[in-house]
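Case study 2.
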Amino acid sequence: MALTGIQIFKLLPKTNCKECGVPTCLAFAMNLASGKAELDACPYVSDEARAQLAEASAPPIRPIKVGKGVRQATTGGETVMYRHEKTFYNQTLLAGTIASDTAEADLEAKLGVWNALQYERVGFNLRPELVALKDVNGDKDAFAALAKNIAEKSEFNLILMSEDADVIAAAIATAGFKRPLVYAATEANADAFGKLALDNDLPLAVKADSIDGVTALTDKLTGMGLKDLVIDTGSREVKQALEDQVAIRRSALKDGNRAVGFPTIAFPGEMASNPDMETLIASMFVAKYGGIVVLSDLTTESVFPLLLERLNIFTDPQRPMTVTEGIFEIGTPDENSPVLVTTNFALTYFIVSGEIEASKVSAYLLIKDSEGLSVLTAWAAGKFGGDDVGMFIKKSGIMDKVKHTELIIPGYAAAIAGDVEEELPGWTITVGPREAAHLPGFLKARA
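Prediction:
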Protein backbone atom coordinates (compact mmCIF):
# COMPACT_ATOMS: atom_id res chain seq x y z
CA MET A 1 0.00 0.00 0.00
CA ALA A 2 1.25 3.51 -0.80
CA LEU A 3 2.77 5.49 2.06
CA THR A 4 1.57 8.88 3.23
CA GLY A 5 3.73 11.98 2.97
CA ILE A 6 4.53 11.89 6.69
CA GLN A 7 5.47 8.20 6.55
CA ILE A 8 7.81 8.93 3.65
CA PHE A 9 9.28 11.96 5.44
CA LYS A 10 10.30 9.78 8.40
CA LEU A 11 12.45 7.69 6.03
CA LEU A 12 14.21 10.63 4.36
CA PRO A 13 17.58 12.05 5.55
CA LYS A 14 15.96 15.37 6.63
CA THR A 15 18.90 17.45 5.41
CA ASN A 16 16.76 20.03 3.57
CA CYS A 17 19.61 20.22 1.04
CA LYS A 18 17.34 21.42 -1.79
CA GLU A 19 19.24 19.24 -4.30
CA CYS A 20 15.98 17.45 -5.17
CA GLY A 21 14.54 20.73 -6.48
CA VAL A 22 12.23 21.59 -3.57
CA PRO A 23 13.15 23.54 -0.41
CA THR A 24 12.53 20.90 2.28
CA CYS A 25 12.50 17.14 2.78
CA LEU A 26 8.88 17.41 3.91
CA ALA A 27 7.88 19.06 0.61
CA PHE A 28 9.78 16.35 -1.27
CA ALA A 29 7.98 13.67 0.74
CA MET A 30 4.61 15.18 -0.14
CA ASN A 31 5.58 15.20 -3.82
CA LEU A 32 6.61 11.54 -3.58
CA ALA A 33 3.31 10.62 -1.96
CA SER A 34 1.31 12.40 -4.68
CA GLY A 35 3.34 10.89 -7.52
CA LYS A 36 4.89 14.19 -8.61
CA ALA A 37 8.50 13.25 -7.85
CA GLU A 38 10.82 10.26 -8.02
CA LEU A 39 13.02 8.97 -5.23
CA ASP A 40 16.10 9.14 -7.48
CA ALA A 41 15.95 12.92 -7.10
CA CYS A 42 17.18 12.57 -3.49
CA PRO A 43 20.97 11.96 -3.46
CA TYR A 44 21.21 11.07 0.24
CA VAL A 45 18.45 8.54 0.87
CA SER A 46 19.76 5.29 2.37
CA ASP A 47 19.53 1.92 0.63
CA GLU A 48 17.26 0.67 3.40
CA ALA A 49 14.89 3.61 3.02
CA ARG A 50 15.03 3.29 -0.76
CA ALA A 51 13.76 -0.26 -0.55
CA GLN A 52 10.85 0.79 1.67
CA LEU A 53 10.01 3.78 -0.49
CA ALA A 54 10.17 2.07 -3.88
CA GLU A 55 6.42 1.71 -4.25
CA ALA A 56 5.53 5.11 -2.81
CA SER A 57 8.07 7.00 -4.90
CA ALA A 58 6.91 5.83 -8.31
CA PRO A 59 3.92 7.58 -9.92
CA PRO A 60 1.34 5.11 -11.28
CA ILE A 61 2.03 6.48 -14.75
CA ARG A 62 5.71 7.22 -15.23
CA PRO A 63 6.55 10.78 -16.34
CA ILE A 64 8.67 10.72 -19.50
CA LYS A 65 10.82 13.63 -20.68
CA VAL A 66 10.96 14.01 -24.45
CA GLY A 67 13.56 16.18 -26.14
CA LYS A 68 16.00 18.79 -24.93
CA GLY A 69 16.14 22.55 -25.16
CA VAL A 70 13.41 25.16 -24.96
CA ARG A 71 10.69 22.73 -25.98
CA GLN A 72 11.67 19.82 -23.80
CA ALA A 73 8.43 18.47 -22.45
CA THR A 74 7.13 15.85 -20.05
CA THR A 75 4.28 13.47 -20.71
CA GLY A 76 2.70 11.03 -18.28
CA GLY A 77 2.97 11.38 -14.52
CA GLU A 78 -0.79 11.49 -14.03
CA THR A 79 -2.39 10.36 -10.79
CA VAL A 80 -6.16 10.57 -11.37
CA MET A 81 -8.73 9.39 -13.89
CA TYR A 82 -10.70 12.63 -13.92
CA ARG A 83 -9.37 16.15 -13.64
CA HIS A 84 -12.03 17.22 -11.13
CA GLU A 85 -10.58 14.67 -8.67
CA LYS A 86 -7.35 16.64 -8.48
CA THR A 87 -5.74 17.90 -11.68
CA PHE A 88 -3.87 16.67 -14.73
CA TYR A 89 -0.18 17.61 -14.66
CA ASN A 90 1.55 17.04 -18.00
CA GLN A 91 -0.34 18.10 -21.07
CA THR A 92 -0.74 16.06 -24.23
CA LEU A 93 2.18 16.74 -26.58
CA LEU A 94 1.29 17.54 -30.20
CA ALA A 95 3.41 16.48 -33.17
CA GLY A 96 3.28 16.88 -36.92
CA THR A 97 4.55 14.24 -39.37
CA ILE A 98 7.29 14.69 -41.97
CA ALA A 99 8.18 11.90 -44.41
CA SER A 100 11.81 10.89 -44.75
CA ASP A 101 11.74 11.51 -48.53
CA THR A 102 10.92 15.21 -48.08
CA ALA A 103 13.27 17.53 -49.96
CA GLU A 104 15.43 19.79 -47.78
CA ALA A 105 13.89 22.97 -49.19
CA ASP A 106 10.39 21.64 -48.53
CA LEU A 107 11.41 20.64 -45.02
CA GLU A 108 12.68 24.12 -44.18
CA ALA A 109 9.53 25.71 -45.60
CA LYS A 110 7.28 23.41 -43.59
CA LEU A 111 9.23 23.92 -40.38
CA GLY A 112 8.97 27.68 -40.89
CA VAL A 113 5.19 27.43 -41.17
CA TRP A 114 4.93 25.10 -38.19
CA ASN A 115 7.17 27.25 -36.03
CA ALA A 116 4.84 30.19 -36.64
CA LEU A 117 1.96 28.26 -35.06
CA GLN A 118 2.16 30.11 -31.75
CA TYR A 119 -0.79 31.64 -29.96
CA GLU A 120 -0.88 33.88 -26.91
CA ARG A 121 -3.65 32.98 -24.50
CA VAL A 122 -4.10 33.87 -20.83
CA GLY A 123 -0.40 34.65 -20.55
CA PHE A 124 0.66 31.31 -22.09
CA ASN A 125 2.43 30.77 -25.38
CA LEU A 126 0.59 27.83 -26.97
CA ARG A 127 2.44 25.82 -29.59
CA PRO A 128 3.04 22.23 -30.75
CA GLU A 129 6.21 20.59 -29.47
CA LEU A 130 7.28 17.73 -31.74
CA VAL A 131 8.10 16.63 -35.26
CA ALA A 132 7.55 12.95 -36.08
CA LEU A 133 10.05 11.97 -38.78
CA LYS A 134 8.61 8.92 -40.53
CA ASP A 135 10.75 6.48 -42.46
CA VAL A 136 9.02 5.75 -45.78
CA ASN A 137 11.75 4.11 -47.87
CA GLY A 138 14.39 2.62 -45.59
CA ASP A 139 17.05 5.10 -46.73
CA LYS A 140 19.00 5.51 -43.49
CA ASP A 141 21.28 8.26 -44.82
CA ALA A 142 18.37 10.45 -45.94
CA PHE A 143 16.55 9.76 -42.67
CA ALA A 144 19.60 10.70 -40.62
CA ALA A 145 20.19 13.87 -42.64
CA LEU A 146 16.63 15.09 -42.12
CA ALA A 147 16.78 14.23 -38.42
CA LYS A 148 19.99 16.26 -38.11
CA ASN A 149 18.42 19.19 -39.97
CA ILE A 150 15.35 19.24 -37.73
CA ALA A 151 17.39 18.86 -34.54
CA GLU A 152 19.91 21.57 -35.37
CA LYS A 153 17.81 24.13 -37.20
CA SER A 154 14.50 24.11 -35.34
CA GLU A 155 13.23 24.26 -31.78
CA PHE A 156 11.08 21.19 -32.35
CA ASN A 157 12.01 17.96 -30.64
CA LEU A 158 11.87 14.67 -32.48
CA ILE A 159 10.06 11.39 -32.76
CA LEU A 160 12.08 8.97 -34.90
CA MET A 161 9.63 6.60 -36.61
CA SER A 162 10.95 3.39 -38.14
CA GLU A 163 10.93 -0.33 -37.38
CA ASP A 164 14.42 -0.70 -38.88
CA ALA A 165 17.10 -0.56 -36.20
CA ASP A 166 19.77 0.53 -38.69
CA VAL A 167 17.67 3.53 -39.77
CA ILE A 168 17.07 4.54 -36.17
CA ALA A 169 20.75 4.09 -35.28
CA ALA A 170 21.80 6.39 -38.11
CA ALA A 171 19.40 9.10 -36.93
CA ILE A 172 20.53 8.73 -33.31
CA ALA A 173 24.09 9.37 -34.48
CA THR A 174 23.08 12.73 -35.99
CA ALA A 175 20.23 13.85 -33.72
CA GLY A 176 20.58 11.88 -30.49
CA PHE A 177 21.71 15.02 -28.65
CA LYS A 178 18.10 16.24 -28.83
CA ARG A 179 16.91 13.13 -26.90
CA PRO A 180 14.31 12.01 -29.46
CA LEU A 181 11.57 9.48 -28.77
CA VAL A 182 12.30 6.27 -30.67
CA TYR A 183 9.23 4.67 -32.28
CA ALA A 184 8.67 1.76 -32.16
CA ALA A 185 9.83 -1.43 -30.51
CA THR A 186 7.77 -4.42 -31.60
CA GLU A 187 7.88 -8.13 -30.83
CA ALA A 188 10.18 -8.58 -33.82
CA ASN A 189 12.75 -5.90 -33.01
CA ALA A 190 12.47 -5.36 -29.24
CA ASP A 191 16.01 -6.56 -28.48
CA ALA A 192 17.67 -4.26 -31.02
CA PHE A 193 15.51 -1.25 -30.21
CA GLY A 194 15.83 -1.80 -26.49
CA LYS A 195 19.62 -1.82 -26.77
CA LEU A 196 19.61 1.38 -28.86
CA ALA A 197 17.41 3.18 -26.34
CA LEU A 198 19.36 1.87 -23.35
CA ASP A 199 22.80 2.69 -24.77
CA ASN A 200 21.76 6.22 -25.73
CA ASP A 201 19.45 6.96 -22.77
CA LEU A 202 16.45 7.63 -25.03
CA PRO A 203 12.71 7.18 -24.43
CA LEU A 204 11.27 4.28 -26.42
CA ALA A 205 7.77 3.66 -27.73
CA VAL A 206 6.42 0.11 -27.85
CA LYS A 207 3.83 -1.09 -30.33
CA ALA A 208 1.75 -4.25 -30.29
CA ASP A 209 -1.66 -5.31 -31.54
CA SER A 210 -3.31 -5.36 -28.11
CA ILE A 211 -2.85 -4.32 -24.50
CA ASP A 212 -1.70 -7.86 -23.68
CA GLY A 213 0.94 -7.59 -26.38
CA VAL A 214 2.06 -4.22 -25.00
CA THR A 215 2.32 -5.71 -21.51
CA ALA A 216 4.62 -8.47 -22.75
CA LEU A 217 6.86 -5.89 -24.45
CA THR A 218 7.04 -3.50 -21.50
CA ASP A 219 7.87 -6.39 -19.14
CA LYS A 220 10.69 -7.44 -21.44
CA LEU A 221 12.10 -3.93 -21.90
CA THR A 222 11.91 -2.97 -18.24
CA GLY A 223 13.70 -6.23 -17.52
CA MET A 224 16.50 -4.94 -19.76
CA GLY A 225 16.75 -1.84 -17.59
CA LEU A 226 14.63 0.59 -19.60
CA LYS A 227 12.35 2.94 -17.69
CA ASP A 228 11.19 5.59 -20.16
CA LEU A 229 8.58 3.84 -22.29
CA VAL A 230 5.58 5.08 -24.29
CA ILE A 231 2.69 2.79 -25.28
CA ASP A 232 0.95 2.28 -28.62
CA THR A 233 -1.63 -0.51 -28.47
CA GLY A 234 -1.73 -0.63 -32.27
CA SER A 235 -5.46 -0.04 -32.60
CA ARG A 236 -6.42 2.20 -35.51
CA GLU A 237 -10.19 1.90 -35.08
CA VAL A 238 -11.57 4.83 -33.10
CA LYS A 239 -13.81 2.95 -30.67
CA GLN A 240 -11.18 0.36 -29.82
CA ALA A 241 -8.46 3.01 -29.53
CA LEU A 242 -10.54 4.95 -27.01
CA GLU A 243 -11.31 1.79 -25.04
CA ASP A 244 -7.58 1.01 -24.94
CA GLN A 245 -6.73 4.47 -23.63
CA VAL A 246 -9.28 4.21 -20.83
CA ALA A 247 -8.34 0.63 -19.96
CA ILE A 248 -4.65 1.51 -19.72
CA ARG A 249 -5.27 4.53 -17.50
CA ARG A 250 -7.65 2.62 -15.27
CA SER A 251 -5.36 -0.39 -14.95
CA ALA A 252 -2.37 1.78 -14.06
CA LEU A 253 -4.22 3.97 -11.55
CA LYS A 254 -6.79 1.65 -10.01
CA ASP A 255 -5.03 -1.70 -10.20
CA GLY A 256 -1.44 -0.50 -9.83
CA ASN A 257 -0.44 -2.36 -13.00
CA ARG A 258 3.14 -1.19 -13.59
CA ALA A 259 3.31 -2.95 -16.97
CA VAL A 260 0.98 -0.32 -18.45
CA GLY A 261 2.03 2.56 -16.19
CA PHE A 262 3.40 4.64 -19.05
CA PRO A 263 2.07 7.47 -21.24
CA THR A 264 0.50 6.59 -24.57
CA ILE A 265 0.97 7.73 -28.15
CA ALA A 266 -1.87 8.01 -30.70
CA PHE A 267 -2.08 8.54 -34.47
CA PRO A 268 -5.48 10.03 -35.35
CA GLY A 269 -4.41 10.53 -38.96
CA GLU A 270 -4.36 6.75 -39.38
CA MET A 271 -7.97 6.57 -38.19
CA ALA A 272 -9.48 9.36 -40.32
CA SER A 273 -10.32 9.89 -43.97
CA ASN A 274 -10.02 13.70 -43.95
CA PRO A 275 -8.33 16.47 -41.91
CA ASP A 276 -11.53 17.52 -40.13
CA MET A 277 -12.17 14.03 -38.83
CA GLU A 278 -8.51 13.70 -37.87
CA THR A 279 -8.77 16.84 -35.73
CA LEU A 280 -11.96 15.56 -34.13
CA ILE A 281 -10.33 12.24 -33.24
CA ALA A 282 -7.24 14.07 -31.98
CA SER A 283 -9.46 16.09 -29.65
CA MET A 284 -10.75 12.82 -28.22
CA PHE A 285 -7.20 11.71 -27.41
CA VAL A 286 -6.38 15.06 -25.80
CA ALA A 287 -9.31 14.46 -23.47
CA LYS A 288 -8.90 10.67 -23.04
CA TYR A 289 -5.88 10.06 -22.39
CA GLY A 290 -3.23 10.53 -25.05
CA GLY A 291 0.24 11.42 -23.84
CA ILE A 292 1.42 12.24 -27.37
CA VAL A 293 -0.84 12.86 -30.37
CA VAL A 294 0.82 12.68 -33.79
CA LEU A 295 -1.01 14.55 -36.56
CA SER A 296 -0.42 14.08 -40.27
CA ASP A 297 0.13 17.84 -40.59
CA LEU A 298 0.10 20.95 -38.41
CA THR A 299 -2.33 23.58 -39.67
CA THR A 300 -3.94 26.51 -37.92
CA GLU A 301 -7.45 25.14 -38.30
CA SER A 302 -6.51 21.90 -36.52
CA VAL A 303 -3.78 22.97 -34.10
CA PHE A 304 -5.44 26.07 -32.64
CA PRO A 305 -8.60 24.34 -31.32
CA LEU A 306 -6.51 21.43 -30.02
CA LEU A 307 -4.19 23.79 -28.16
CA LEU A 308 -7.14 25.57 -26.58
CA GLU A 309 -8.75 22.28 -25.60
CA ARG A 310 -5.46 21.15 -24.11
CA LEU A 311 -5.10 24.40 -22.16
CA ASN A 312 -8.58 24.02 -20.68
CA ILE A 313 -8.21 20.37 -19.77
CA PHE A 314 -4.76 20.69 -18.23
CA THR A 315 -5.55 23.80 -16.21
CA ASP A 316 -6.02 23.01 -12.53
CA PRO A 317 -9.82 23.09 -12.01
CA GLN A 318 -9.29 24.10 -8.39
CA ARG A 319 -7.39 27.24 -9.38
CA PRO A 320 -8.92 29.94 -11.57
CA MET A 321 -7.06 31.08 -14.66
CA THR A 322 -5.28 34.34 -13.99
CA VAL A 323 -3.12 36.97 -15.64
CA THR A 324 -0.07 38.59 -14.12
CA GLU A 325 -0.51 41.62 -11.90
CA GLY A 326 0.77 44.81 -13.52
CA ILE A 327 0.16 47.54 -16.10
CA PHE A 328 -1.16 46.55 -19.52
CA GLU A 329 -1.06 49.02 -22.38
CA ILE A 330 -4.11 48.86 -24.63
CA GLY A 331 -3.39 50.58 -27.94
CA THR A 332 -0.74 53.30 -27.73
CA PRO A 333 -1.45 55.15 -24.48
CA ASP A 334 0.36 58.35 -23.49
CA GLU A 335 0.54 60.56 -20.41
CA ASN A 336 -3.03 61.74 -20.96
CA SER A 337 -4.63 58.35 -21.50
CA PRO A 338 -7.28 57.03 -19.09
CA VAL A 339 -6.28 54.60 -16.34
CA LEU A 340 -8.58 51.70 -15.44
CA VAL A 341 -8.20 48.99 -12.82
CA THR A 342 -9.74 45.53 -12.50
CA THR A 343 -8.97 42.06 -11.10
CA ASN A 344 -6.64 39.39 -12.47
CA PHE A 345 -9.35 36.83 -13.30
CA ALA A 346 -8.38 35.89 -16.86
CA LEU A 347 -11.90 36.12 -18.26
CA THR A 348 -12.35 39.58 -16.74
CA TYR A 349 -9.06 40.74 -18.24
CA PHE A 350 -9.81 39.51 -21.74
CA ILE A 351 -13.34 40.89 -21.78
CA VAL A 352 -12.32 44.30 -20.42
CA SER A 353 -9.23 44.63 -22.61
CA GLY A 354 -11.25 43.57 -25.65
CA GLU A 355 -13.88 46.23 -25.02
CA ILE A 356 -11.20 48.89 -24.53
CA GLU A 357 -9.65 47.88 -27.84
CA ALA A 358 -13.07 48.08 -29.47
CA SER A 359 -13.45 51.65 -28.21
CA LYS A 360 -10.33 52.73 -30.16
CA VAL A 361 -9.35 54.74 -27.08
CA SER A 362 -5.81 53.94 -25.93
CA ALA A 363 -5.65 53.32 -22.19
CA TYR A 364 -3.69 51.83 -19.32
CA LEU A 365 -5.39 48.80 -17.78
CA LEU A 366 -4.09 48.00 -14.31
CA ILE A 367 -4.52 44.40 -13.20
CA LYS A 368 -4.53 43.78 -9.46
CA ASP A 369 -3.93 40.32 -8.03
CA SER A 370 -7.26 39.14 -6.60
CA GLU A 371 -6.35 35.41 -6.49
CA GLY A 372 -8.23 34.90 -9.74
CA LEU A 373 -11.61 36.19 -8.55
CA SER A 374 -13.95 38.35 -10.62
CA VAL A 375 -14.65 41.92 -9.50
CA LEU A 376 -17.82 41.38 -7.47
CA THR A 377 -16.59 38.13 -5.94
CA ALA A 378 -13.20 39.65 -5.13
CA TRP A 379 -14.79 42.67 -3.48
CA ALA A 380 -17.11 40.43 -1.41
CA ALA A 381 -14.14 38.27 -0.37
CA GLY A 382 -12.02 41.26 0.65
CA LYS A 383 -9.56 40.75 -2.22
CA PHE A 384 -10.43 43.99 -4.04
CA GLY A 385 -10.89 46.52 -1.24
CA GLY A 386 -10.32 50.25 -1.47
CA ASP A 387 -7.19 50.25 0.69
CA ASP A 388 -5.65 47.39 -1.28
CA VAL A 389 -6.45 48.97 -4.64
CA GLY A 390 -5.02 52.31 -3.50
CA MET A 391 -1.80 50.68 -2.30
CA PHE A 392 -1.55 48.79 -5.57
CA ILE A 393 -1.89 52.00 -7.60
CA LYS A 394 0.92 53.59 -5.59
CA LYS A 395 3.37 50.76 -6.16
CA SER A 396 2.32 49.91 -9.74
CA GLY A 397 4.37 52.67 -11.37
CA ILE A 398 1.43 54.21 -13.20
CA MET A 399 2.15 57.59 -11.61
CA ASP A 400 5.34 57.74 -13.67
CA LYS A 401 3.43 57.15 -16.89
CA VAL A 402 0.57 59.67 -16.67
CA LYS A 403 0.35 63.31 -15.61
CA HIS A 404 -3.31 63.21 -14.57
CA THR A 405 -4.72 61.78 -11.33
CA GLU A 406 -7.91 60.00 -12.33
CA LEU A 407 -8.63 56.33 -11.81
CA ILE A 408 -11.60 54.48 -13.30
CA ILE A 409 -12.84 51.58 -11.16
CA PRO A 410 -15.38 48.89 -12.12
CA GLY A 411 -19.04 49.76 -11.55
CA TYR A 412 -19.54 46.63 -9.47
CA ALA A 413 -16.87 47.93 -7.07
CA ALA A 414 -18.40 51.38 -6.62
CA ALA A 415 -18.46 50.85 -2.84
CA ILE A 416 -14.67 51.07 -2.64
CA ALA A 417 -14.44 54.53 -4.22
CA GLY A 418 -14.26 56.39 -0.89
CA ASP A 419 -11.55 54.12 0.53
CA VAL A 420 -9.50 54.46 -2.66
CA GLU A 421 -9.74 58.26 -2.44
CA GLU A 422 -8.51 58.15 1.14
CA GLU A 423 -5.55 56.01 0.11
CA LEU A 424 -4.83 58.24 -2.91
CA PRO A 425 -5.18 61.86 -1.75
CA GLY A 426 -5.70 64.25 -4.63
CA TRP A 427 -6.90 61.56 -7.01
CA THR A 428 -10.31 61.54 -8.64
CA ILE A 429 -11.95 58.12 -8.47
CA THR A 430 -14.47 57.64 -11.27
CA VAL A 431 -16.91 54.76 -11.19
CA GLY A 432 -17.08 53.10 -14.59
CA PRO A 433 -19.92 51.05 -16.04
CA ARG A 434 -20.95 47.79 -14.43
CA GLU A 435 -20.89 45.86 -17.67
CA ALA A 436 -17.76 45.71 -19.83
CA ALA A 437 -19.93 45.99 -22.94
CA HIS A 438 -20.65 49.60 -21.96
CA LEU A 439 -16.96 50.56 -21.81
CA PRO A 440 -16.59 51.66 -25.46
CA GLY A 441 -19.38 54.20 -25.15
CA PHE A 442 -18.11 55.32 -21.74
CA LEU A 443 -14.56 55.87 -22.98
CA LYS A 444 -15.57 57.53 -26.25
CA ALA A 445 -17.77 59.99 -24.37
CA ARG A 446 -14.77 61.03 -22.29
CA ALA A 447 -12.27 61.22 -25.14
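Residues 12 and 120 are 42 Å apart (CA to CA).
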